[in-house]
Amino acid sequence: MTNPITNIPIPAILEIKSGIIYNLQDIFDRHGFENILMLFDSFTMDQWEANIKDSLSTTKVDTVLMQPHAEVHDLIKQAFSIKMYDAIVAVGGGAVIDCGKYMAFSRQTPFISIPTSASNDGFASSNCSLMIEGKKTTVPAKVPYGIIADLDIIQNAPSPFILAGVGDLMSNITALYDWEFEDRQGVSRVNAFASMLSKKAVNSFVRTPMHDIQDPTFLKELVSSLTMGGVATIISGNSAPISGSEHLISHALDKYAEHPHMHGIQVGIATYIMANVQEHRADRMQKVFTRTGFFDHIKTLEVKKADFKMAIENSPEIKPHRYTYLHEKKYQRKALDFLDQDPILQEILR
Amino acid sequence: MTNPITNIPIPAILEIKSGIIYNLQDIFDRHGFENILMLFDSFTMDQWEANIKDSLSTTKVDTVLMQPHAEVHDLIKQAFSIKMYDAIVAVGGGAVIDCGKYMAFSRQTPFISIPTSASNDGFASSNCSLMIEGKKTTVPAKVPYGIIADLDIIQNAPSPFILAGVGDLMSNITALYDWEFEDRQGVSRVNAFASMLSKKAVNSFVRTPMHDIQDPTFLKELVSSLTMGGVATIISGNSAPISGSEHLISHALDKYAEHPHMHGIQVGIATYIMANVQEHRADRMQKVFTRTGFFDHIKTLEVKKADFKMAIENSPEIKPHRYTYLHEKKYQRKALDFLDQDPILQEILR
Amino acid sequence: MTNPITNIPIPAILEIKSGIIYNLQDIFDRHGFENILMLFDSFTMDQWEANIKDSLSTTKVDTVLMQPHAEVHDLIKQAFSIKMYDAIVAVGGGAVIDCGKYMAFSRQTPFISIPTSASNDGFASSNCSLMIEGKKTTVPAKVPYGIIADLDIIQNAPSPFILAGVGDLMSNITALYDWEFEDRQGVSRVNAFASMLSKKAVNSFVRTPMHDIQDPTFLKELVSSLTMGGVATIISGNSAPISGSEHLISHALDKYAEHPHMHGIQVGIATYIMANVQEHRADRMQKVFTRTGFFDHIKTLEVKKADFKMAIENSPEIKPHRYTYLHEKKYQRKALDFLDQDPILQEILR
Amino acid sequence: MTNPITNIPIPAILEIKSGIIYNLQDIFDRHGFENILMLFDSFTMDQWEANIKDSLSTTKVDTVLMQPHAEVHDLIKQAFSIKMYDAIVAVGGGAVIDCGKYMAFSRQTPFISIPTSASNDGFASSNCSLMIEGKKTTVPAKVPYGIIADLDIIQNAPSPFILAGVGDLMSNITALYDWEFEDRQGVSRVNAFASMLSKKAVNSFVRTPMHDIQDPTFLKELVSSLTMGGVATIISGNSAPISGSEHLISHALDKYAEHPHMHGIQVGIATYIMANVQEHRADRMQKVFTRTGFFDHIKTLEVKKADFKMAIENSPEIKPHRYTYLHEKKYQRKALDFLDQDPILQEILR
Lengths: 350, 350, 350, 350
Known about the structure:
Chain A is built from 15 helices and 9 strands. By secondary structure, chain A is α/β, with parallel strands linked by helices. In chain A, the strands form 2 sheets. A 6-stranded parallel sheet of chain A has the order 2-9-6-5-3-4. A two-stranded antiparallel ribbon of chain A has the order 7-8. In chain A, α2 links the parallel β3 and β4. In chain A, α6 packs across α10. The N and C termini of chain A lie far apart (59 Å). β1 of chain A pairs antiparallel with β1 of chain B. Chains A, B, C, D: This is Probable glycerol dehydrogenase. Chains A, B, C, D: It holds the Pfam family Fe-ADH_2. Chains A, B, C, D: One of its GO terms (molecular function) is metal ion binding.
């Protein structure tokens, strides 16, 4: 038995603090990064490109403006048209981060996430969501070498982005319950360590004061908990620690709804539904979504009940090899009933 | 850059549940353990040896009764007098676990902790506390291959053991604050990932319902949070994520007090003191120690204020290379004043 | 210092023996592979598909016929159109192996090489040579999970394939000499461990009896030495341990010659030239190429001296960031002179 | 399948060259070693301590003179009486290297071997040979962080040390043959990768010119091949790739002979015997031992045939869980006959 202990890769850089975006030189120095490629979307390029470049004294930076809705095909073409960099850095939301993550994976170059919002856990995960032949696909890449979150920036992102992050994080609770259910059915096996990380991440968060979602303490808790959820998926080798029935509903909405909403928003509503179906920590869920203003925000969005109905009905086919609560007719029925009868949902959905 | 991502070793087995101690065969099968050495202390041998053996169908087990106050010298002698086993398992409290951990390290055999109480985080850490030439010494070993905690057993341990675990876990808060302080002084560097794990571990715990410390949910939270603290030390490569000024006080008590108390008990009191010195989360500390009955238990123990006074004064010399709050005269003074004036301490100490 | 020792990934399966191709079930069992995708080219499908399938009792196999000259774009499309397999296996020459390696990389699935000839070290390396937008590109992938070489098959491959393998392996000698030269110029740093593996691989080979290149002992030596060279590149994180000035000449031929020859054939001739330029082990080189029949084979191929002249002249631009002997005018001149004057080259080239 | 590829630890420093012992500062700088403990035996301290210290500009060095025949007990006591160093370095033969290796293991500090002779492969292995309660015991430790061999020094070691190294390296051949035999009996399983490294190491060596065993090229080959054998044992997790029946004979001599000889000397003679018993590469063995002067040297040593007889008879009990050729009566008989009848042995043994 030569290798009895499991080794897991973790990000070598993890910085979550105010103003860090203008102190990158220090970080680059410590890791020997002398040549960097930095990717932006049009908004983040406009906002931060010039100042970040000004703040760097020795590291050379080339910058690129990324287009939305990237095809894997084009990312690879782009990845091999550039020279060899010490690291590829992406500054922005989920889309530009996924592009950078995949380009870095293709070239086997270290990748650094600089998320400008906390709207989901993509900045810490090893997967990307990209287009292959026009179809949105979950594509494996690598765990980021570094995660750098500037709380000043995340704080100033529009509050719906923060609420989406809350929705995505809360889903750990229902996802873990689904995973244990699946394990009891013999369909998969819970990885205790991954499960523990995901659970601690959300438990630590749900007990944070929530009166001000722009408060740095709250945001640091949110970002670090999303990060820890991402690391949990690295350990388990699949997305089960942070993605269960509630994510199936969101994926079905992306596929079938005419106007899908932000990932974390859809996931949050679905999480509220599934917590009630599972009858597990549903009160806690309601408190968090009420206190953070998540429910109030939904009211402003024109989210359609009919879309959720269809999504619940189609959810099992999204991942036929899994076995969540929604893969049993009985619980699917229960979810549909709850959708029809819960007073909160009647108020916030259309 | 061939190896850009940091790899950390984590336990391959992590089981925290009721009745698991009689389901070891399953676990052994999954990991191919056919020959096991199992270590007990006199109490645990009496309680569980026969039943555990009965519950195993195929794995062969040899058992050994370990003596208290083990010298490293004797453990090595013993380790090399036995044949080669697939794993060494220790069933009991900190002492027998440390013996097993070191014997397994010496033979480079996988080690499995089966703690019978939650009184400290030793079952998950990579260090042991052993005697070298009659002197208690912190000795590096290896991260356990497995941690198996039976909640039925831990629940029935005397409540002081549970309270000691609470004390040891709460110290993460003051330890992390010391670590950041030390980092600002340039004496060490906080490992962000280790810090995050330790913080989530204790944050998840402090927000758990505490009306019944024998409740399985509470105990599972306690044990898993202690485990995660242990893993944090593996990542940082030192004990800083879970051991700061409050541990120095406890070590000084072990060294100088006539009658030292249980590790977690001493650490808990010291943590309460240091949280007030640091002026960081002291209210939370007070709530946890009140609600769990920690303070009430101290009243029954004859803990001497004079011992704490001496321990605070001698704490910096315990680890002269560190730089915690107690390494500054000003804060040492503040700790001594608090010891003299805090109403709670006047009530619970002698 | 938490991680003082360098960890390198090595293939978990390494089988080089006669008849192994019909004993795959055993290997698959040991590694838990129940569902396999197996890729063939038209020749290997015709030869072995039916018999391999017949030999497998429990593992389910889907097979695919791969087309030559694969574009990365198409491989990714294909990779994401298939279901999740436990492993992807490629049976054939360099082309189909590179396809399988990249598809497996894209899906992060274990990859197993089953080379049917020993014509180069691609079956053991972590890179592929694929088309991106019509341009041949070296694309990083992952080290194979397994390498399975059936000596019966390799023995029966046409002898030019074996000779090409000899050429590719002998280039370790000139490549290592270039690497040390480059290190002395301060352009790169020799990784001592990678260098040692590559050197032992070729040294072990050059001293093997060479009267019969179809002899299983000779072939096992050739295949295992090529494998060890591949592992050396994993350790160094670049191709330097097995690719220097002689590979630049071959790459230039691929780019500019009207009719390029097999990789290992071009590399072998270039290695003979460079050994004489470097004045290092040129005699040994001549003996190996004479005894194995490599030189005799070249005579039959219509290899053009003019192509080599042009390739030597263009070689530095192929990898401008490197600094081999050919990056110095003086040695480039020496190579051209040798090309013009060496009696052997006058005899074997046109 | 999260971790499909096997990771092996390899030395981070590997330097085999002339004069390197006075260029340690460079190496220490690159690895951040500012405080070093350096162990010597009385000979090496006398020879090199002062000059090494003079050659170091910034790294601080404490030096210790180690006593022969170290008890594990005393090494641990010593290890915990010293402060924390960045690395522990041992300069000398097998004895002082084993002491340093174990002290470094106990403190979990990086260890660097500086062998002053090439008499065995201990400088590269992860085991030590130490005394436990007066009994010589093989004790697991850790793979060295670094191996630094100065060819000027090794060249000037008395030639018997070099010949012992030749004996220890040649044993790879018989050890590997035993391992395959054992595998066929179903007693163990050959690790193909470890086997390949060990085989290439010795194959590369046997084909080196041997007219001058003090020649730097010869010595570099010898030292690097011994190193590669050591790495092979790390991969296999046991000593099988470099230790078979021939080592059992040497261990039995250490245990029972009145005057044991140097490890590599005993192993070399036993290797010659076993190659003839196995009827595998016995001619090659004879050539190497003749050309290097190994046989001539034996004649000067008063090695007793009777001791070898007894050692062969007692060899199986040394490692009863293994199954080498000597574990079968038939081959044991053959070994005894060969001992009695081989003309060379009659000439060189007494």
